[in-house]
Amino acid sequence: MGVDLEGIIQCIKQGDENGVEVQLQEFNKEFAQCFFFDSEESERRKQIKLEQFRINKVREYDDSDSDCDQSAREDRGLVLRQNLTLVLVRFIRTGATRRLLRVSLRTLRILSRDKKVLGPLVTDAALLTLAKLAGLTTGDAGGEEPGEPDSDFYDDVIASLAEAKASRSLADEDEGDVEADDDAESDVGDDRDGFDRPDGRGTGSNGMQGGSRHHEALERGRRDRRKSKMEGEEEEQGEEEEGGEEAQRREALKVLCNVVYNSTWAQERFSELRLMGGLTERLSSSVSGSSPSSVQFYELRLMFLVTALRRELSTQLQQEGGVSIFTAALESCLEVQWKDQYECVLDPAAPPISLEASQRIIEILKIFFNITCRSHRQEPREDDAALYRHLVAILRLCLIRKCLLSDDTDELQGHTVNLLSALPLQCLDVLLTVPPRPDSEPGPGVNLDCVRILVLFMERHLETGEKMKEKLTPILNLLTESCRAHRETRHYIRKHILPPLRDTTLRPEEGSTVKSRLIRLMTHLDTDLKHCAADLIFVLCKENVSRFVKYTGYGNAAGLLATRGLLGGQRSRLSSDVRYSSDSDSDTEEYRRVKDRINPVTGRVEAEQPDPMEGMTEEEKEEEAKGLVMLFNKLSRDNIIQPMAVDSEGKLVPMTGLGGNSTEEVKSESENDGEEEEGEKN
């Protein structure tokens, strides 16, 4: 490691601010994109030893202590990071000047990616200190004060590092040959001016061992799109010098995001220390400001994490007016102007949503989902219904407006769909009641622009086939529920997905149409995705079993029919509360000509097959039938198959009788026939 951690601690102990700043900046630059995974390094070394053992066919005697040496070397890197974290937490609480706070917090941000060194960061004192630096609290940091003088504290840390360093030197001497064969080189890139993504995307993985001179090449991640790729570190530093307090708050929030995501204990203490109120107050005040602060994004990210990881905090936020607060934040980001109570002004000449605004909007939508995801099946009160309708009117803009980047537009629409699927269904009528524009989709007195966008969103992700469950399940559920609730929506979607049948030469699942892609999903391995696709087509068929089979084929429809107990062809009981129109499904002329020749299982006209019994005598046909009966009985006895039948409720049940004879009687008769045949042969 090029950075002297003992030197950093010595500089802090001696009060050498210039030395601390220079060495911490060197550490931050070297490890800006590193994650510390000791297990990866350990596994790599085990593989090297295994290869050596295979080559030599025998293990040298002195290798018996190599595992201990390796463990000591690995512990050295962990000790280095743990002690640096411990020192920096104390430093920012007791002795760091404003000049050094930002660079110290950035170092802690890098260290907080490693779950093994989070101990000093998850104490109440450390969390309260970070919260104060982030602007979430205004009083003293509180918590436990250091119990020993600074000089004694730093001396103990330096002694611990010296002991670990001595163990490391011995391990390096014992395995010098192995290190000489290592050809992995560092590939640490420039620091991304952005937070550490809690989901791991946008960051590389590194097999670096803390004290090693070699570390594996880093995998490049997606850069933070809130900053232009042309903006360099110099511009970032200049910005932070102009607004030092804002830069300090930003770094403290980044550390909190990493700590809260990586530590269950930190999540619990965040709740117990009542930091939620301070975060809510900060967001509420930043929304009412004239222009959004650059720190607001990280405040939103922290709010998303705590509401996603702690259910009681999401409930608390909802009860304390979170819907109103974040609705106002959404209005501010979109610069909403109201035309009517539930209608926003849509300016066709408005510029695309900026990168910064789109990222803030996405975080707000994710927070909204966390606090409303349990409201979908509930009947909202009158005042809550008004709030949700106000929110849906803004979400209409999120569907229609474009972002600067097409990927951002798709991501924004995806999170909007997630939130719409979580809101009470009766509040979504706002999407249809907006007066249509001259270029709107034609509809019977309703505005179908949002429905068209939702259908296009579904089609786009059906074509790409990426993250199908994550992307398609919410939109399929939303369209299904909307079709049940709104007749106009169902007519429009059915026209695009289930046009009148004309070509019956292909199976329903063959082809590249939206209908064929959805029908292919009906036999998908993922149960949730399979049921969502089948439900949508079933609702488009007005939950009519015969019509459903007509469009999909009995083979594709059997899964849903069996699940709902509709194999007998009766009407779905789930649709008793849904009033579908009485219009009939008129067949096309092409379909009527071949209707009698369509195979109901495959859903297409099959080529005529030759009669397999042509030319056989009656005796031969009878022998063939007996052979089939014996074969089925054998498969049933061996539990390879189980004969089933449809009961009066339309569900599959084990078949206990066949043509008035019990299964056992049929089995006995077939066995007797087999014995008679054997006797004749003998």
Written account of the structure:
There is one protein chain. With 682 residues, the chain is mainly α. Among the domains are: 5-177, no CATH class; 621-681, no CATH class. Helices cover 59% and strands 3% of the residues. It is built from 29 helices and eight strands. Strands 1-2 form a two-stranded antiparallel ribbon. The protein has a two-stranded antiparallel sheet with strand order 3-4. Strand 1 (338-340) and strand 2 (343-344) form a beta hairpin. It is globular. The N and C termini lie far apart (88 Å).
In short:
With 682 residues, the chain is mainly α.
**How much is the radius of gyration in Å?**
34 Å
Query: Major sheet: size, sense and barrel closure?
Result: 2 strands, antiparallel
**Which runs of at least 5 residues are low in confidence (pLDDT < 50)?**
59-65, 175-242, 658-667, 673-678
Helix/strand/pairing category: mainly alpha
Shape: globular
